[in-house]
Known about the structure:
The protein has about 120 residues and is an alpha/beta fold. The protein has helices spanning about 10-20, 40-45, 55-60, 65-70, 90-95, 105-115; strands spanning about 5-10, 30-35, 50-55, 75-80, 100. Strands 2-1-3-4-5 form a 5-stranded parallel beta sheet, sandwiched between helices.
Amino acid sequence: MTRRILIVSHHPAIGRGLRALLETMSEVEVLAVVVGRLGQVEALAAAPDVVLVEVEQARDSHGALIGMPRTRFPNVRIIAFGIYPGQETAARRAGADTFVVTDAGDAALRAAILGG
């Protein structure tokens, strides 16, 4: 089953890098890369299965950005990612299903996306 993914990042280069990585995974279809809140509502119209949100974005909007997709799509899987393991608590409190540390590697990201 292919997972349709929306990537939300605070920097275009991070979003492009994640897109390039995810496009190497046969189980994934990247719908869009959104920088910050700009365009997220429109991107959600594509009905993603997974939203990959950078914790920096979640902090900037006090967690609203993590919960936003769930209000439209209750079954969407929300994965937060960040630099520090200590960011996991805040991300989960904001509504993320899981958290991935950016240096955890491709296998950890794949497992989070696929629900493993």
